[in-house]
Amino acid sequence: MKKRRGRLLSIALTLGLTAVPLAAFAEGGQPSTAAETPAVQTATAAEAVAELGILKGDGKGVTEAYLEQTTTRLQAAILMLRLLGKEQEALGFQGTASFADADKAGKASRPILAYLKSNPEFGWGGTGTGKFEPTAPVTAQQLYKVMLESLGYRSGTDFAYNDTLSFAADQGLFRASGAAPFTNRDLAVALTETLRATPKGASGILLHDLVEKKVVSADHAKLLDGQRIDISQTAAGDSYLTDGKGMALYLFTNDMADLSACQGACLTNWPAFYSDNLVIPYGMNAEDFGVSIRSDGAKQLTYKGWPLYTFLKDTKAGDANGEGANNVWFLIKQPFYTIGLGTNAEIGHYLVDSDGVSLYYFDKDPKGASVCEGDCLVKWPVFHADRTVVPKGLKAEDFGEITRADGTKQTTFKGYPLYYFFQDAKRGDLKGQSVGEVWFAVNPETFSGTTTGKSTPAPVADKVTIEMKGYQFSQAELTVKAGTTIEFINMDDDKHNAVAVDGSFETELLNKGQSATIKLDKPGVYDYYCAPHKSHMKGRIIVE
Questions:
Q1: Cβ partners under 8 Å of residue 261, min gap 6
Q2: What is d(CA 268, CA 417) in angstroms, rounded to the nearest whole number?
Q3: How far apart are CA 326 and CA 344, in angstroms?
Q4: Phi/psi of residue 182, each to 5°?
Q5: Cα 436 to chain center, whole Å?
Q6: How distant is the alpha carbon of residue 391 from its chain centre?
Q7: Which residue has the higher pLDDT, 351 or 457?
Q8: Which of 340, 360, 363, 470 could bridge 438 with an S-S bond, Cβ 3.0-4.6 Å?
């Protein structure tokens, strides 16, 4: 999106236009000022616990290299003592009795091993052979046992060791339970869960107890006092964002030009989601999260410019009852939609990019090709998405791509190229609608092709190419004349092939860079799929 913004701004300046540049707008589509777009403090789990001083890293700090290392038994023991406020006491311990292999630990850590040997109530009795094995890696089960004991629960009394992970999940500790091998990055995730959990018999969370004991500062503790973002999966395997309690987060397609479109009863059913501080999963971009000021002055978190909501009828973690509601409420899928929907009172639903910027079709384009060249492209830049991720109600197979004469790719809808309009300066703008009575926003519910496309015969070609890229066929629907040679080229790392539903053709499994050709002499409609990815990788060839 940033590259596209720069291009549109450059075009506007070149043509001497005074449209407000996209850079002057916040992600919410409103003029960007400090008062209207306050920052949200975001951090990954590793960043948060490092800032708190709970996770200290090696001599170089909490680096990427450190986070990729496996967590050791000694690390786990030290962290338990730190969470219990006993670390300094252990470091100053003068006892000499210790484990047989204490010399395998660094000199500074040896008092800790002696302290654990002298205080078996902490649960570190060694391996049964008099050894501690300080450098041995821990498993998720072992680590979560340590975290539970940091909260005052005891293995063998409060839970059976074999039930560690299920008991931990009941306390809200589960996000790293599937990690193998267990790394320091996973450790950071488990630590954030533990700090926000309530110790046995306590009334407040462990983090606040550590603040009172001055183990961590109150200012730093604010990082974990807010909401967290998690990624869950639907029964169909689609990933989506939730809050820390597993409640699904949604976007509202009416939030285009007006980010406060949801009012009154709407807000009762779809509460706005907000937090001053936010812990996000590793790999997510902090810059994708922002803040919108609603018309009543309330703050609301945004993701890629879209205000976030929960749904009243989602009553437990894993519910996604609002998905597709009225065709205007959608989950925040991960990866996020490369093509989405906006809603306008006059146009109805229309296609937008991932940032909510409008997409158009050119009524002079034939199916499968673009006649917009030169100065036309200056005002109507091509839209291209590297992969197709769309909301419920849109069909991924309706989207494809063409290769333009200059070699650039352009995304198509039902075979017709998609464009931006250079004067659309922000999300919600539809300044390209009806320009010259040949440019129109794309309503996916009513669009069936351009005037030109409907009157143009099937293309005449001796050979066409379909790329297998991003787990999609580059032309979801292709019309050719009988006898045309069709070449399939695999651009992905995984193997793909093309198999006709009616059995009329089947290519071999292709490695990256390999190709296969077929020739269809008989007119008809040939639906096909990729066998290894049959559920979502489909296409159609119409032979005339």
A1: 252, 254, 255
A2: 40
A3: 14
A4: -90, 115
A5: 39
A6: 14
A7: 351
A8: 363
Q: Which of 18-27, 53-62, 198-207 has the highest mean pLDDT?
A: 198-207
Backbone angles phi, psi at 144, to 5 degrees: -70, -30
Give CA 484 to chain center in angstroms. 40
Query: What is the Cα–Cα distance from 504 to 379, expressed in whole angstroms?
Result: 44
Question: Please, what's the b/e burial string for 429-462 (b: 16 or more CB within 10 A of its CB; e: otherwise)?
Answer: bbebbeeeeebbbbebeebebbebbeebebbeee
pLDDT of the residue at 12: 39
> Per-residue pLDDT tens for 81-115?
999 999 999 999 999 999 999 999 999 999 999 99
| Cα 529 from Cα 254, distance rounded (Å) | 35
Number of Cβ atoms within 10 Å of the Cβ of 212: 11
Is the pLDDT reported for residue 76 higher than 50?
A: yes
Phi and psi for 163 in degrees, rounded to 5? -100, 15
For 340, the enclosing helix (H) or strand (E) is strand 339-344
Other C-beta atoms lying within 10 Å of the C-beta of residue 111: 20
Question: CA–CA separation, 251 vs 66, rounded Å?
Answer: 37
Cβ contacts of 114 within 8 Å, gap of 6 or more: 93, 95, 96, 97, 98, 102
Query: Phi, psi at residue 162, to the nearest 5°?
Result: -65, -20
Q: Report the distance separating Cα 214 and Cα 211, nearest Å.
A: 5
At residue 527, the 3 state secondary structure works out as strand
Output the pTM of the full model. 0.75
- β-bridge pairing 277-280 and 399-403: unpaired
Rounded CA gap, 175 and 244, in Å? Answer: 10
Residues β-bridged to residue 292: 300
The full length of the chain comes to 544
Single-letter code of the amino acid located at 82? R
Query: Could you tell me what percentage of the chain is helix, strand and coil, using 3-state DSSP and rounding each to the nearest 5?
Result: 25, 25, 50
- Per-residue pLDDT, averaged over 490-507, amounts to 94
Per-residue confidence band for 67, with pLDDT thresholds at 50, 70 and 90? very high
Q: Is 373 exposed, middle or buried, given 0-12, 13-18 or 19+ CB atoms closer than 10 A?
A: exposed
Q: Which residue has the tokens 């198509």?
A: 412
Residues 430-454: tens digit of each pLDDT: 999 999 999 999 999 999 999 987 7
Can you tell me the distance from the alpha carbon of 19 to that of 423, in angstroms, rounded to the nearest whole number?
6
SS (H, E, C) 373-433: CCHHHHHCCECCCCCCCCCCCCCHHHEEEEECCCCCEEEEECCEECECCCCCCCCCCCCCC
Quote the DSSP letter at residue 324: T
Residues 6+ away with beta carbon under 8 Å from 407: none
